Amino acid sequence: MLVVGEPILDLFADVGGDGAKRVLTAVARIDRGPLGVVAGAMAGALPATRMPVWMSQVGDARVTRAFSAYSPGDGEAIFLQVDDNRDEAHMVAAFISERRGGIAKQLGVIRVIDLLDPQTPGSDGGDDGLRLQFREVDPILACRRVRIAVDRTDKHAHPPVGEEFSEHRALAIARVTPLSIVLRQPAAG
Fold first, then answer.
1. φ, ψ for residue 2 (rounded to 5)?
2. Strand ranges of the sheet holding 103-110, from the earlier edge strand across to the other edge
3. 76-86, pLDDT tens digit by residue?
C-alpha cells in the first residue's frame, strides 16, 4: 500500500489546507502500517488547523466481545463484536481454514447478533443438521488469531479466498490491530 498510496498522499500534502490535513489525519488514524505513519508525518508538517470533533473518533473502534466455533479438520469461525462509539456496532467475521494451513479464507462484516442464543438465525449450520456451537473467547487472543490468519493469507501466492475477502481485509486489520501498538515508540537507550 505504501508504494501505491504515498504518491496520492503527496498530492494531498502539496495542495495543503484544512481538507488535506483532515484526509491525511484520517488515513494516519485508520491505517496501522507504514502508510499511516507517512500520512501522520505529512499531516504534522501542515500548518495547524481546527479539526472537527468527529475526527478524534476516526479509527477509534474496539473489540468488546469475541466468539469462536471450531470444527476439527475444517477450521474456526471467529466473530469479533466491535463498538465504534457512533452507535454503529458491527461484527467482523472470519473463517480460518485448517485445511488451507490457517489462512483467513473468509472475511465479512455483519450486524451484531447474539451467537450464544440457539435461536439466532444462521447459527444452525445449514440444512445438513450441524449446529455451530459458539463460545465466548478472549477478544485479544481472538484478534491475534485473525491477524495471524490474514498475514498467512497475504503470504500465500494464490489464496483460495471468498469473494468478499479483499473488500473486508483493511477493515479487519484495522479492527484487530490496536492503535497503541503502532504508536508506542521503543525506549531510547
1. -65, -40
2. 103-110, 90-97, 75-83, 62-71, 135-137
3. 999 999 876 55
Please state, in angstroms and rounded to a whole number, the distance separating the CA atoms of residues 29 and 174: 9
Length of the chain, in residues: 189
Burial letters 133-162, b for 16+ CB under 10 A, else e: ebeebebeebbebbbebbebbeeeeebebe
Q: DSSP for the chain, please give it.
A: -HHHHHHHHHHHHHH-HHHHHHHHHHHHHH--SHHHHHHHHHHHHSPP-PPPGGGGGTT--EEEEEEEEEETTTEEEEEEEEE-SSS--EEEEEEEETTTTSEEEEEEEE----TT-TTSTTTT-STT------EEE-HHHHHHHHHHHHHHHHHSSS----TTHHHHHHHHHHHHS-HHHHHPPPPP-
- Residue 126: left (phi > 0), alpha (psi -120 to 50), or beta? left
Contact between 97 and 159 under an 8 Å Cβ cutoff? The reply is no
- What is d(CA 84, CA 90) in angstroms, rounded to the nearest whole number? 8
| Domain locations along the chain | 2-57, 62-176
pLDDT tens column, 112-158: 888 887 776 555 544 444 456 899 999 999 999 999 999 999 898 88
Task: Tell me the pTM.
Answer: 0.63
